[in-house]
Amino acid sequence: MVLRRGPYDPAFRAAADGPLWRATRTPHGPATLRLTAGPAGVVAATAWGPGADWALDTLPALLGADDDPAAFVPRHPLVAESLRRHRGVRLARTGLVLESLIPSILEQRVTTEDAYRAWRLLLRRFGEPAPGPGAELGLFVPPEPRTWALLPSWEWHLAGVDGKRSAAVVRAARLARRMEEAAAMPLPEALARLQAVPGIGPWTAAETLQRSNGAPDAVTVGDLHLPGTVGYALAGERDADDERMLELLAPYAGQRYRAARLILLAGVRPPRRAPRQRHARIARL
User: Fold this and answer.
1) End-to-end CA distance of the chain
2) What b-and-e string marks burial along 235-258, b requiring 16 or more CB atoms within 10 Å of the CB?
3) CA 168 → CA 6, 187, 269, distances in Å?
4) 209-253 pLDDT tens trace
5) CB–CB of 190/209 below 8 Å?
6) pTM of the model as a whole
């Protein structure tokens, strides 16, 4: 699930043959949500906590009910085959901006492993136990904006988060209400709202709005790997840059994020030519 930040995300618990658990902070407070897949695509849901009603009311959007995959027309054999194989994939819409914005900031300029580790450490230390049975499962609700804004510098350091990323999180948390308003905005205005905060660029804004708004055209630019993957999949070019990627995705205008996601789901990657990026653990310094 695109909302899950790594296999050990404290806000999620899932098993192949069991329910999916999600801890979240809604506009009405913390909530624990349990989802169980039933026959014929039916999903059974139960929620606990002050935000339980909000979580259940917005569940259809979370599961992609507001998405319109029929608007997508594949224009490349690989994309068409991926769509056929993943016909049921829909874009989730959480309606919660800060919940996706903060971990996206943590993922700037570092490996996903290091970003997931920082998110995990910060949630377990400063989040609150999820309501109901969520606490027994070890789930944590992300901290309130005020908590994020007041974290001391040494706590960020211990989590491996450098000063630029932590400062961006603090700025966003101090503007939490303005950030959350972006969930109801058209994509261009929402992108502009998020990028008005220093430290939040096109990459972070797109990664956030893909989740909070379910925006089908919020294509990620500035990514280390995505241009090469798209270039290789659509044109056999392994060294494509952002400009070339956007050129190749131009036929999917309005649906570029969906097209890129289907390309990633196809599993086609250019051959690796360099070793993986090394992990830099600043907490040890």
Assistant:
1) 34
2) eebeebebebbbebbeebeebbbb
3) 21, 21, 32
4) 999 999 999 999 999 999 999 999 999 999 999 999 999 999 999
5) yes
6) 0.93
